[in-house]
Specification:
It is built from four helices and ten strands; from the N terminus they run H-H-H-H-E-E-E-E-E-E-E-E-E-E. By secondary structure, the chain is an alpha+beta fold. The longest helix is centred in the first third of the chain and has 22 residues, at 23-44.
Length: 231
Amino acid sequence: MSGTRRAPRQFPPHGSAAVASSPWILVSIGVVIMVVLLVIAVGAYRGPGPDFQPVPPGQPPVAAAPIPERASSADREVSTPPSVAVPGLSPRRTDPPSPTPSASRTTSPPPSAAPSRTTEPPAPPPAPIDARYRVLHTFHGGFIAEVSIRNTSHRDLDWVARVDYPGGRVVTAWLEGVPQGTFSGTGGTLTYRSGPDLDAWSSVYLRFHIESADPRPASCTVSGRTCRSRR
């Protein structure tokens, strides 16, 4: 037995030598790769959808709008839309506006009208009379004066003459050539009221005796009309 040699053990080839010795392995790997690529291509392919519209010839293709990415929960918490501002409030305040003073204030009743004061009726306008004053005679301690009275209207008028002499004394008064009226003399003030009405466009002469007074009276009126001086 010692003289018998044992044949050396042969091991199967390893690595690239094994692949080269078995070509069917390469073919199998290539077929598997092609099948995988075909599956990927079929899955990625998308046919035209119901909204697909072919582009007419001669027009450029319309670019598809980009699909917005779905926001994550973190982005939704960060990008919170701003709150709507309420009119009448600043952006920092959140409480509702307070009611205006005009709406909450109770209107007080209007003050009662103050009682109107009793006013005297206005004085009547001067009568349409022309009155003129003049001194007829002077003597020691007194004088005789005259007021000519003319009715310048188209109707008969009554009249009242008033002549004031401060510090004087009225002795008497009369009308020339017509029915007499009534007179009163208090101090130096003469008041004479006509008798019958004075006819339209007619005249009458009132004369009076005054003592201890200036011949120029302080005032002279006939029914509100101021006497003019007559020479």
